[in-house]
Amino acid sequence: MSGVSHGAKLRRRPVPVLLLALGPGLMVMLADTDAGSIVTAAQSGARWGYRLLLLQLVLVPVLYLVMELTVRLGIATGKGHAELIRDHFGTGWALVSVGTLLVSAVGALVTEFAGVAGIGRLFGLPAAATVIPAAAALVGLVVTGGYRRVELVGIVLGLFELAFIVAAVLTRPDLHALGAGLVSAQPFSSSSYTALVAANVGAVVMPWMVFYQQGAVVEKRLGPGDLRGARLDTALGAVVTQIVMAAVLIATAATLAGATGARPLDSVGDIAAALSPALGSQAARYVLAFGIGGAALVASIVVALALAWAVAEALGRPRSLDDSVRRAPLFYGLFTASVVVGAALVLTSGSLVRLAVDVEILNALLLPLVLGFLALLAFRVLPRPYGLGRYRRAALATTLAAVTAIGLLWVGLALGL
Question: Above pLDDT 70, what percent of the chain?
Fold first, then answer.
């Protein structure tokens, strides 16, 4: 399906050639730091200072361990995630998996367009003035551009998230307090602390990330010789996304931690107001516009593509960005429809914050199924030399179990159970 040759032996490639494999991992990780994740990091810093900073760093290897499996599966088989499920577990299970992705993807798109609408409100613009042009631009990009152009534009948009690193520096955090926060923790007897720990862990892997990265590896036609480069791509993305999360946490911790009467950080406007004393109102608005705008747009591309790829794979239909609309009408139609539905829900909803919370709960509920299929495929499908050794299997099983359990814990706390 992908045209990848799998008869080639694994071999070392010079560094410039390794760079050709970069893209899928970095793009999906930049999408992982989406509008909802940024709000979570901001809440962590404002409520608990630097005490959750170490967690952001600990999550780097967790994120890499899970997402690197999609690289192995994509390169070893030349098939996307939904197609592999269909081939090894049947069409019924493939449709179940895609059905969970559909719900998660639409919810995620609502969150992203809510972030876009929030940016518009910072500058006095109605939601329609930002959401409609953003949705139209995304559809136009994908319908008229091949894979390489879409990936390049997506990464450029995602790199605007680095504005949060600038913000963290400009807030002049107390380095002594920052260092103390790295080695201290709050007892889990505090329900608000436990909820934020669970929210941060639950946000580290989203269901749509698994479908996107494996699909992108296939779309980019990466072969056995690209494995090292693709791993580097995934590792780089994992580091960058968690550094951005840490920067958001540091910025809000430096400006709000310990302050009395601070308002909850539930929206883009709340974060801008919190950063204004340290950055100035104009600078705070532009930091949020670049950071959250870039994050929301790259996440929208990734989420909608993940859904379109998965459905087309499950049904055995053409699904390449290098195909014309005439050749792959289902694929392009699904991408367009998902973007339009996400934007329309934002424009017609009266409570975007409530929607964002509901989406995070939904992702945590759906994650066990997605990670379960990922583990089963890794254990059953991967041939040598891609297969997992005994210790890697144990580490993977432990990591997946922990991420799933913490995600479900967060659901319980969010629902007051």
Answer: 86
Confidence of residue 77 (pLDDT cuts 50, 70, 90): very high
**Average confidence (pLDDT) over 175-202:** 76
The interaxial angle of helices 268-279 and 91-122, nearest 10 deg, is 50
- The answer to whether position 291 is within a domain reads yes
| Structural domain includes residue 5 | no
Quickly state the pLDDT bin for 406 (edges 50, 70, 90).
Answer: confident
* Domains held by the chain: number: 1
Structure tokens at 100: 């969970």
The residue segments making up the domain with residue 34 are 15-414
The answer as to whether 8 is a domain residue is: no
Q: What is the CATH number of the domain that holds 85?
A: 1.20.1740.10
In a domain, 6, yes or no: no
The per-residue pLDDT for 262 is: 54
pLDDT-derived band at 27, boundaries 50, 70, 90: very high
pLDDT at 356: 58
